[in-house]
Design a protein that fits this description.
This protein has 332 residues and is an alpha+beta fold. Helices cover 61% and strands 11% of the residues. A hairpin with a 2-residue loop joins strand 5 and strand 6. The longest helix has 113 residues.
């Protein structure tokens, strides 16, 4: 409700109360006049000259008559005043009640009008807020959709990474008893697995001072196709016991300068990451190696040794290779 309507309602109520007040005041004055007239009439009747009584009445008769008349006048006057007082009080109470009722009604009407105006204003404000909320929802919905897609993508990548990690771990576990030997001389391309095993046992016993036999080897075979220009294809050796593998790796430093190198048999992924740690950050990495398929890096800055986590593999793979990288550096 507008301010003009509120002002008009208030002025109307004030005019109404003023008119009622004037009417009530006139009623009171009229009643007072009527009372005064009644009283004056009775007094005038009492003052009229009395007819002379007969001469045969006693001298006390006029006095008795006057006292009796005064008593009657007093009773009538008292009765009139009391009766009029009741009527007057009744009318007065009625008028007061009406005046109070009108005042309350006017106040309530004004208050209701004000409340209706407030309710209207609040309803308008609420409608504006609803429209603003709906507008914000329309703006947020596309972003929520994009965020949902992004979250789904992240979750998918995490799931894929977990799957890749588990598969890599299983593959590495299958190689827990195996080693890889490079640059082991190969006499002819038709070399059999038995001949390869005999050659492995002979070289390891000679250079590492071990006492191995063919019975310690589950299988030994060359990798890839034979190339005449190469000294010899790499050999995968799987031992019967894991302890045999550990003994060989513990003494492999004795092979330095002997033309033969022994490494842990790593998965393709682990082997590639190990090569990255050895060649891609030469100014930062002091050394790197693998133990049971786990890759360790020793930093130059603080001599700290860290075991690489699977989620760090991709960062190493994404680093650029140096301009010249020996092929040996990419082997496990």
């Amino acid at each position: 409700m507008t301010k003009v309507k509120k002002t008009q309602a208030k002025n109307f109520q004030n005019q109404k109360r003023e008119t009622e007040g004037k009417k009530n005041k006139k009623r009171k004055i009229d009643k007072q006049k009527n009372l005064q007239q009644m009283f004056d009439q009775m007094v005038s009747e009492n003052e009229r000259p009395q007819e002379e009584t007969s001469t045969d009445k006693t001298q006390m008769a006029p006095q008795t008559s006057i006292e009796q008349q005064l008593k009657e006048i007093n009773e009538k006057l008292g009765h009139v005043v009391r009766k009029d007082d009741k009527s007057f009080l009744r009318e007065l109470v009625k008028e007061i009640f009406i005046e109070i009722k009108d005042t309350l009604m006017a106040s309530l009407t004004l208050r209701i009008e004000v409340l209706e105006g407030d309710v209207h204003d609040k309803a308008t404000e609420n409608q504006a807020l609803k429209e603003e909320i709906n507008s914000l929802k329309r703006q947020v919905e596309p972003k929520d959709s994009e965020l949902h897609v992004e979250n789904m993508k992240i979750q998918h990548e995490k799931v894929q990474m977990n799957i890749s990690e588990k598969l890599n771990e299983q593959e590495q576990y299958s190689r827990k008893n195996s080693i890889r030997i490079t640059t082991l001389a190969e006499d002819y391309p038709e070399e059999t697995a038995l001949e390869t095993a005999e050659k492995v046992v002979k070289n390891l016993n000679h250079h590492l001072k071990l006492n191995l036999s063919k019975n310690d080897i589950d299988i030994a075979h060359r990798l890839g196709k034979h190339k005449p220009e190469k000294r010899g294809r790499a050999v995968i050796v799987k031992f019967i016991q894991k302890t045999t593998k550990q003994n060989v790796l513990a003494k492999r430093k004795l092979l330095k300068g002997k033309g033969v190198a022994v490494y842990e048999d790593l998965t393709r992924l682990n082997s590639e990451v190990l090569a990255c740690t050895r060649k891609k950050l030469p100014d930062e990495v002091n050394d790197s190696w693998s133990v049971n398929g786990n890759i360790f890096v020793k930093w130059k800055a603080n001599e700290k040794i860290d075991r690489l986590k699977f989620e760090e593999f991709q960062r190493w793979l994404d680093l650029p290779w140096p301009e010249t990288t020996p092929s040996e550096g990419r082997r496990g």
